[in-house]
Write a structure and sequence with these properties.
Helices cover 25% and strands 27% of the residues. The protein has helices at 2-16, 21-33, 65-72, 78-86, 162-169, 196-208, 283-290, 304-310, 347-356, and strands spanning 37-41, 44-49, 52-55, 91-92, 108-111, 114-118, 134-137, 141-146, 177-178, 187-193, 212-221, 230-231, 235-239, 245-249, 258-265, 269-276, 317-324, 339-342.
Length: 357
């Protein structure tokens, strides 16, 4: 009788504070029974996942605990993840630990029961064609010839992007992360890491620049001077009032350098090869426009009047190759071996070139 009275008082207190009793009871029950269960709440569909123990493999060795949790608990707010660690809900080898702890192979990580919101309908990104664009794949990474118009990831109003589609098509792979980025309207070579060890080593080389070379094909308006092989104008990133991010030439900006080589002149356009020495946002596009020869079809930095005359069906910028020299210097163990990957021109850009001749 007394226990019934206590439950009634608890139910009353929960009701007064705006909680729904059935949510709390279901969350506890699902966790105790050791399974995940979906339920309806006043905040949408929720999923409850039981506590679990995860053994860290060699590929995750050296990763900070907080970064590991952020990668495996997608959708959980960062503040909640740090709270889990601070309160001891997350444990390693049965002991409390700090967020900056670096994982070791064989560590046993306890991940506590969690509750996260999910969509009413689970999104299936397999409608995005991506598998047929894979150029190369091994145990460490895959190289993809990304079509122009496909974002590398979802967000900013986009339903989904290349990485979401790839994870849906290749659900057999536990780890898939973008190794670098390409603008949505740029086609060409994009690397996706299948191992965290590859991602760390590749991104180290991206910062280094001395041994990693990225080449692009582009078609610009007008006749590019043959002698113009180097542009080193500084670039400043700017956020507009509407939230859009752009880059501008600014003497107070960051040092930038792009190398250009003329591949072919046409009557009113030039086909160029560009090599990035630095890697600022939209660097090739901004440098091309600053020389008076904007990229054809560039709606952000280009010349809309000239584009209107020839009506291009895409921006004429393509990431054509990426190579890493052998014996590249590295502060990490087991540095990457040298490699080179080529991505042929997308059919629309190839057809545009053929029409210019």
């Amino acid at each position: 009788m007394q226990s019934d009275l206590n439950r009634a008082k608890l139910r009353l207190r929960l009701t007064k504070t705006g909680h729904v009793m059935c949510q709390s009871v279901l969350s506890i029950t699902a966790s105790e029974r050791g399974y995940s269960k979906k339920m309806q709440s006043n905040q949408g569909t929720m999923t409850h996942e039981a506590a679990r123990i995860v053994e860290i493999d060699a590929d995750r060795s050296g990763q900070r605990l907080d970064n590991y949790l952020l990668s495996v608990l997608k959708g959980i707010p960062k503040t909640r993840i740090y709270q889990m660690v601070r309160k001891g809900e997350v444990r390693i080898n049965k002991g409390r630990i700090k967020p900056h702890y670096k994982l070791k192979a064989g560590d046993l990580v306890r991940i506590p029961p969690i509750r996260r919101a999910v969509s009413e309908v689970e999104k299936d990104y397999r409608f995005i064609s991506v598998v047929e664009h894979i150029l190369f794949e091994d145990d460490l990474m895959m190289a993809i010839n990304k079509p122009a118009g496909l974002a590398v990831h979802g967000g900013s109003g986009l339903t989904g992007g290349l990485i979401e589609a790839l994870r849906a098509h290749r659900s057999d792979l536990p780890y898939l992360e973008l190794a670098h980025r390409l603008d949505r309207d740029t086609s060409g070579l994009l690397l996706v890491a299948k191992k965290r060890s590859f991602l760390r080593r590749f991104q180290e080389q991206l910062r280094n620049k001395d041994h990693l070379q990225k080449h692009y094909d582009l078609i610009v308006h007008g006749r590019w001077p043959d002698a113009k092989s180097r542009v080193d104008l500084p670039i400043q990133k700017v956020v507009l009032a509407n939230g859009e991010r752009i880059s501008r030439i600014d003497r107070d900006g960051k040092a930038c350098e792009t190398r250009f080589r003329v591949k072919q002149h046409f009557s009113n356009a030039t086909w160029l090869e560009a090599r990035l020495v630095t890697g600022r946002m939209h660097q090739i596009r901004v440098h091309a426009t600053a020389t008076g020869h904007p990229i054809i079809g560039d709606t952000k930095y280009g010349d809309p009047d000239k584009d209107m005359l020839i009506r291009p069906n895409r921006m004429m910028l393509h990431a054509s190759s990426l190579s890493l020299k052998n014996r590249a210097q590295s502060a990490l163990d087991n540095p990457l071996e040298g490699f080179s990957v080529l991505a042929p021109l997308e059919h629309r850009m190839k057809a545009f070139l053929e029409a210019l001749t």
